[in-house]
Structure formats: C-alpha cells, structure tokens
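Tutorial, part two.
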Amino acid sequence: MKKLLTIIDMQYDFVMPDGKLSLNCPEIIKPFNDFIKRAGKNFDAIIATRDDHVAGEYETCAYSDEATKFPMHCEVGTKGHEYLVKIPQSNKLSWVSKKDNDMWHRASRLSMRPYAETFDGGMETNAITHLFSNTQWHVFVAGVASDICVKYAIDGFLSRGYKVSVLTDLTRGLNADMGAVAAQCYQDCLRTGRLRLSTSAQFINETKGK
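Running the prediction step on this input gives:
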C-alpha cells in the first residue's frame, strides 16, 4: 500500500515551553526533523495540519466551541503559529488549515498542491477520502496532542476505513500519552490490526531499501 504521513499541529504554541497552549515537549523537534530528513522520501504523500486562528474570529466564531475550552493560540502571523517540523516543499506535501480541534471539522480546509488542476485549494478535508483511497493508502500519524487533535485525526481515518499506524515516539499528549489513549479507546482496532502503535525507528527499519 502507499504511505500517507499525517503530521498533526507541530506548532510553537503547542510544543515550546513558553507556548500559549504548551505541552512542553521541545525534545520532540530534533527527532521529528531527523526522521523527515531520513525517511520522508519513503512516504508517497504528506499532510501537515496546523491551527490557523485569527484574533476576533476565534473568540466569537459560531462554528466551533474551542474558544470556550482553550485560550487563543497559534494566531496567524505570530511566533506561536510557527511550524517546527521542516517539511520539504515538494508536490508530496499538502496542508490542512484547522479552525477546530478536529481536522475533519467542516471549518477545516485542505490545500492539495499536487491536485491543483483537479481540485481548488480550500476544499473541505473530507475530500481526503476521494484523493487517498482507503484501500490503497496506509496512514501514519504523529504530532500533538495524542489525547486531543491526534485522537480526532485517528478517529476520522478509522471511521473512514483506513489502516492507521501511530509513530508513538513522535507523538505527545496533554493529559495522556498515546499508549494510554490507545488502551482506553482502541482495543478493538489494535486487536484487529486496523490500528498499530509503532515508532519512527521501526518505520525506518521496515522500509529500509524500499
């Protein structure tokens, strides 16, 4: 199967100690970037999600209740919005602009550069299912936070019939790590093999020479 890497919200405000909604996990940055340099070529496509919040809109928007749960963060144009994983700007890369915790939320938008002639930028993220067939693509997920945005991403892929692997060493949680989340929420999927917990080292080893 083809391999789709989905990187979740690796932004300054989530990762760095002084971020506005920090998980305080700067130690993840170098291994993540090393992994992309070494193994990025082994993915057939990469999707990176990011929060794109705007002052005024965030606090008053009617389409999401995120502002009632979390303070303003990842404001476009600020340091907190900075993406900390350096992904090569190639035709493998697409972006999801998020206005809610859930990348599959109706307010999220997908910019698919490789498919620009077929789809306009800004389509809803449900178009992922049309561009990446669940029978042809194996999804790999990593990023922050395992118990919020990463979980929403996993839930969305699983509910749409994808096989999902989580790179646990490149994933961090706010209140629970990926192992705890999986034990609580995904026992059936783990048992049937629809969800797998893996590591970046395992991926590199399994794709060596491929």
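The mean pLDDT is 91. In part three we will examine how such features are distributed along the chain.
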